[in-house]
Design a protein that fits this description.
The chain has one domain. The protein has six helices and seven strands; from the N terminus they run ααααββαβαββββ.
């Protein structure tokens, strides 16, 4: 029988005869003691881990997914808007503008072109009709909804067509322009091709959850052209063509 008073005198783990007795004392893990010293129990540790995971997830989405998703959406929207604008311009302007309506040509007695001048009234009319056409196309574009698989934004070929769909909405901003341009290109010996085309620009807002952006879509549509035999006359007044 062990004398309790003697055990206390001999110290823990020692019997009256000096023999060591094994006493098992549970040890706390280092992480648990660390958080307990700071007043955090198990619920506090779970909360810290949840906050850290959320921060890492937001960082991953912001750095990796967001730029890819924005770029992918802008490419899809740009292609769609370009197709709609080109269709409207083609239906409105095809075979409705002639070279002689836009350019006045004067020749000398030998038939050589000595003077060329743009018909500013006709150029203005074409630009106004084109701008109206662009506005109508933007009205068709406004409110179009698209869906893009999130897997494509991750850049994985295996996940390209799976995952939740990200809604994308197009909003026309009403900012558009239309300008008549022209170029001269050498074609063969003593021949120059004079090309006249219409250049349009429109701004479209791409609405993605938390990632809005604005893209500028530019569409060029040829109007008419002519081959000028001989040199381009020194007197060429392109009033209204190519001016900003």
């Amino acid at each position: 029988m062990v004398d309790l008073g003697e055990s206390r005198r001999n110290g823990p783990g020692l019997s009256a005869g000096g023999r060591a007795e094994a006493l098992w004392l549970p040890r706390k893990s280092g992480a648990k003691r660390y958080w307990q010293r700071r007043g955090l129990g198990r619920p506090g540790c779970v909360m810290v881990l949840m906050v850290a995971t959320a921060v890492m997830l937001i960082w991953f989405l912001e750095v990796t997914v967001a730029p890819s998703l924005r770029t992918m959406a802008e490419l899809e929207v740009s292609g769609l808007v370009t197709e709609i604008l080109a269709r409207h311009l083609r239906d409105s302007l095809q075979n409705r503008v002639s070279y002689r309506d836009l350019i006045y040509i004067e020749k000398d007695d030998s038939g050589r072109i000595v003077f060329m001048q743009a018909n500013t009234d006709e150029v203005t009319r074409v630009e106004a009709e084109t701008l109206l056409c662009v506005q109508q196309a933007l009205g068709e574009i406004d409110g179009i909804k698209m869906e893009l698989p999130l897997g494509q934004a991750l850049g994985s070929s295996l996940l390209a067509n799976i995952g939740p769909s990200i809604p994308v909405t197009l909003k026309a901003m009403g900012m558009a322009s239309a300008r008549v341009r022209d170029t001269f290109e050498s074609r063969g010996i003593n021949n120059v091709r004079h090309s006249i085309y219409i250049e349009t620009e429109a701004n479209v807002r791409v609405v993605i959850p938390l990632l809005p952006s604005v893209i500028k879509v530019k569409v060029t549509m040829p109007l008419t052209e002519a081959i000028i035999a001989g040199e381009v006359p020194r007197a060429y007044l392109n009033w209204g063509i190519g001016e900003k």
